Amino acid sequence: MFLWNTSSLPILQLGSEFYDPVEAATFPQKKLRYWNSDIQLKVDPQLFAAFTPLPNNLPQPLALRYHGHQFQHYNPHLGDGRGFLFAQIQQNNQWYDLGTKGSGPTPYSRGGDGRLTLKGAFRESLATELLQTLGVKTSKTLCFFETGENLVRNDEPSPTRSAVLTRFSLGHIRIGTFQRLAFLQQKENIKKLISYCMHFYYPSELAKIDAEDDNLLAARFLYNVIESNAKLAAQVMMSGFVHGVLNTDNISIAGELFDYGPYRFMPEYDPNFTAAYFDEQGLYCFGRQPASFLWALHQLAASLKQAYPDLPAEEMLQGFSESFQTAIHENFFRRLNLKPLHTDEDNKLLATFFDLLEKNNLKFEQTFFDFHSKKVLNTASLLSFYEAKSAADVLKLLEKYEIADQAKAQSPYFQSEKPTTLLIDEIESLWKPIASHDDWSLYEQKLQSIRGFRNAYT
Q1: What does the pLDDT profile of the chain (458 residues) look like in tens digits?
Q2: For residue 287, how many other CB atoms are within 10 A of its CB?
Q3: Residue 21: in which H helix or E strand, if any?
Q4: pTM (2 decimals)?
Q5: Nearest to residue 395, comparing CAs of 375, 422, 412?
Q6: 249 is catalytic
Q7: Residues 80, 97, 249, 370: which is the catalytic one?
């Protein structure tokens, strides 16, 4: 039984076997390019460029230790290679991590420079902003600074500008964190980490059980991680998002999407759409993302069984599909702003809607936008367009449903003709003036556009 103090820094209670103290890099320039005022963190932003310790917080940054499967090949040489945990803070009785990307080399950099490109920081900030608006449980970008260094990268015109970014997230414990403990056969640390995660990530669930029963605690922990990641997978799918690299070291125990590299938002509906140019086999294509989450959860279960051999993991993992399907329905009707009938008609509408998307290669976000609050039935031009796409079955089913939220139906956002999107060509268009003459105005306009409909889907 592990005792945790909910008013003290969680990571320090976890202990030094889970991290390495490191030093932040020193940057020649510290130019603030993005600050997320929605997080309401009342500190000097420059702290997140100099990384001066916050008062009564971590005295030194910590690089977290983990392993993981990368494209389903196990790698025991991972860990925080260009980031660290800078601080942990409490808001509304919930602990959050402030973790970095591009803050310099660590013992896990594997020969890398530990830096982040400015374009990488710019891209992550856009992804987290839009995913949050679309109702995806995601880490948030707190800030990023341009740091005045020239970096050489194979996937960007080089030399390219550098940045350091700070994330605001529920936590940085990954499936790969447990895989490392299993690899090293640290059974007691597996038990300790389960207890830690339940206390700081799932406190309300912890209150429902006898926390002194280790076997029950382990089972409830696995159940909650399966449930939260099934819901997350459904949110990702209903946003048309392709993460790109759903390795086990990139899947959070807290059920929160994070660590955005070669992501893409899908333009036209295509289950085989792939984000990463190096994913030649399409392992992490759009349609395979739920299976990727489930595969990763199987690796977590195998790690937990090192300490709890009688854990009914296989039986519990079978619950992923039902939880995912339930969440798919919830998010589908949320995105359309309709009240589900809770009959087989719901399944029919979902199936015929996606059949319409696939057969006609329709634009993903535009189609959801057109069908929101039954807009398609009340707009002659849209009705004509979709009737020409053999959408009669979908349109007929749609008539049976009531609008869930009239205020959202009347949102100014849905009165326009086109939704706010973030396709790859748009990202490149936003980046071009920054790269050529340091003009951030289009980027700022896009952020305002995304934030302008933040309550439309949530």
Answers
A1: 688 998 899 999 999 999 999 999 999 999 999 999 999 998 999 999 999 999 999 999 999 999 999 999 999 999 999 999 999 999 998 999 999 999 999 999 998 999 999 999 999 999 999 999 999 999 999 999 999 999 989 878 889 999 999 999 999 999 999 999 999 999 999 999 999 999 999 999 888 888 788 999 999 999 999 999 999 999 999 999 999 999 999 999 999 999 999 999 999 999 999 999 999 999 999 999 999 999 999 999 999 999 999 999 999 999 999 999 999 999 999 999 999 999 999 999 999 999 999 999 999 999 999 999 999 999 999 999 999 999 999 999 999 999 999 999 999 999 999 999 999 999 999 999 999 999 999 999 999 999 999 999 98
A2: 15
A3: strand 19-21
A4: 0.96
A5: 375
A6: yes
A7: 249
C-alpha–C-alpha distance, residues 238 and 327, integer Å: 10
Helix-then-strand count for the chain, H and E? 17, 12
Q: Which residue has the tokens 């039935």?
A: 377
Structural domain spans, the chain: 10-169, 337-451
Packed helices 214-238 and 319-336: angle between N→C axes, nearest 10 degrees: 40
